[in-house]
Sequence to fold (383 residues):
Amino acid sequence: MPINLLLLLLFTLVISTIFNASKALELGSTSISIPPAGPPISPAALVPALFIIGDSSVDCGTNNYLGTFARADRLPYGRDFDSHQPTGRFSNGRIPVDYLALRLGLPFVPSYLGQKGNVKDMIQGVNYASAGAGIIFSSGSELGQHISLIQQIQQFTDTYQQFILSMGENVTAHLISNSVFYLSIGINDYIHYYLPNVSDVQNLYLPWSFNQFLASNVRREIKNLYNINVRKVVLMGMAPIGCAPHYLWKYGRNGECVEEINDMILEFNFVMRYMVKMLRQELPDSDIIFCDMYEGSMDIIQNHEHYGFDFTTDACCGLGKYKGWIMCISPEMACSNASNHIWWDQFHPTDAVNAILADNVWNGLHTKMCYPMNLEDMVATKL
Fold:
């Protein structure tokens, strides 16, 4: 197919998606596929609720309700999910927080925009994550609408106020202080801001200074959460996007990871891990852990045969070399078996990888990722 025709088809498809999304919002349409609530809540749930803040790594449907190019509301996304339908998750199946919710004895967590706003729908957790979101407010804005980190924190604050009005301050404080908060954000500040050199940022900040800037913003927001009784926080580091199919295609390194990008990610994770260590000392009764996605992901890439992955560079769905040029937009672009691929699309891992990473966050089953403890140990600590 000629390149010009292909690009025209892509443009038409995405514009159609944006138009339909806007129309659905105006008419109050309920045509978007909503995932099942998951298994019923266990009477032995380890925590009251799971709250999620982040980007496309944990978005479970927020962007279905926004006018944006960053959407996963059509097949083949979700084809291997429990419902075999697209839900807004940027994967062929589950995302890490789905597996962790089950570990905690909770149902799948609904997106903030995907539920009706009743306290009973939010009492076991809410997912505020939005694909394209970054720590910096404007990161990812060229993709269209998204809910930034600061906006997600505000949405949680609104939820907190609803809980107080419904249950009272003491009950709400107890629920929130014993619930888990999972933060996975920051990668878009590189993909859509620093690496493209938006606003000449690379001349203003060297990578180390840029990472310090990002960390200071995350630190401020964690302290804001602490001030409204949040105590148990899982802060996720960045994955090695220098190994993602998009950058393998863009930099043309014959399938080798782009080290200069991965070095920036390593620095970011180092800064964040140190920040968590300091916050644990500064904030009384806080239980904050840092989980290094770089370590967990590189273990999978380097030991892919052990984990049963045959494809380490090529995405399952996409177009171009390594399927890293054009995003996954139709079932015809996808491989038949995603379970032997590390990458699902340009930037996101497959369900199989998400399951391994979730196991590591929970108890370090495959390799140690979390410091100073894993999630299983953290929830065993009662406040």
